[in-house]
Amino acid sequence: MRVSKRATSAIALSAAAALVASGCSSGDSNDDAAASKDGAISVHGVQPENPLVPSNTTETGGGKVIDWLFTGLVEYPNDGGAPRNALAESINTTDSKVFTIKIKKGTKFHDGTEVKSKNFVDAWNWAAYSPNGAQNGTFFSDIQGFEDTYTTDPDGADGPQKAPPPKADKMSGLKVVDEQTFEVTLAAPTAVFPTKLGYSAFMPLPDVFFTQKPEEFGKKPVGNGPVKFVSWEDNVLIKLTRFDDYNLRDKMKVKDVDVKLYQDETAAYADLLANNLDFMEVVPTSALAGDKWKTDLGDRGLSTVTPSTALIAFPTYDKRFQNPKLRRAVSLSINRQEISDKIFFGTRKPADSWANPLTPGAKPGNCTACKFDPATAKTLLTEAGGFTGEMVFYYNSDSSHKDWMDAVAQQVKTNLGINARAEGVPTFAVFRQNINAHKMTGPYRAAWQQDYPDVENWVNPLYVTGGSSNDGLYSSKEVDALAKQASAAPSLEASHEAFSKAVELVDQDVPSIPIYFYGQQSGHSEKIKKLELNNVGELDITSVEL
Fold it and tell me: I need a surface site. Which of 60, 106, 187, 433 has the fewest CB within 10 A?
């Protein structure tokens, strides 16, 4: 499960949250523009799990950098408006099954080559060809011919069998019409398909990508976005700089962006307070008590809500966690309100639904497993045959998760009598590598930050068999069937209703545990005169003015 995914969405923010134009600027506008033009900013980050290939990045550490390096067909405005064309000149369909996509002429990759329709078609086909191992490969399952390019391992990564070779290496539903036009034929009408196209899995790749190994490209990526790659020192720094040939709406105002890769949020916060770091997306939980962060930062602090949810996921590939009654018992033993009040001082809301309620199509209050009911939890644990041994809850310790994960483990221990504790993994990158290798031996911290504004994004990647972020390997034929029906619904309204039925089954199986809905407290340095957040709370680097 992507631990805070990223990409923007189109849910409305309050004006106060969307505009963080603080402080300052009564100075001469020409001086301000000059300061921005040659200026540099530093942004808090963590070591990406993988080299930076868009269709193989499913987490925030690398994801936010990819979002800055690449521009897709559509974009999701910061002000909460509907998705709008970015690189696309037009996206036309008469039946929501066949789409004709025309891209803008004259846009460039960072190596100077022109972005053409084949760069999308080739990138999508590469991602959908399962031997390439792209983690986001299943995002292309709507397209006709995907089933011929993508095969799955019949008995899991540790089994003796291997995935059968695909019948084809290209999807039949993709066709280049000319240098600026391509046609996409879906397996069935899919009303949400155009909305998806701003997610990073759908980014174009330059010709040079196909001349080298993906990991080589990913360590020195060539994108088409407003900034281009300069260098990457593992666990220290990723350097980006303005791409002066960028000719779309969101051009950079500052010149250089340093993404500092921290292993300790406390150290990052200290740098923020000392103006040695220019933007920190989430302040440490230690700064929330008594609104300390407000005192520390003054008008450099900002607060918003985002369509993101913190969860705990189960490794259902581990036999100890395959009984849904056990999983439900664990969920019912957790007092989410107490965690919100005592750990986050009310800045997070207890989760009560499977999709974040800020998401179009999401139904509030549909997580019956999210209730606090220790008596029922004990009964279910007994019916499940109890739990033998230690239940270890894992989290990455380079971000502020220790306190609330300790609280979860203590509640499970107190309310169920299970020998439970929480344990930190030093870095986010290693944590994600363990998850993707299916090596987790206990429940683990996860989060979902939507990729595009539709409830479909909270079901297909997470709970459909083989979904791109179904890291616990949960599988239900009934959920799969309902999700397939929902995806092919003729309208968004019909799709949302069908997905709600799939979610009812997920609620009974409890493959993961929603814990809280994100609230976000961020901060910036004194030298930043203006900035905006996208509505998942990440910095819009093209908005920054000094």
Answer: 106
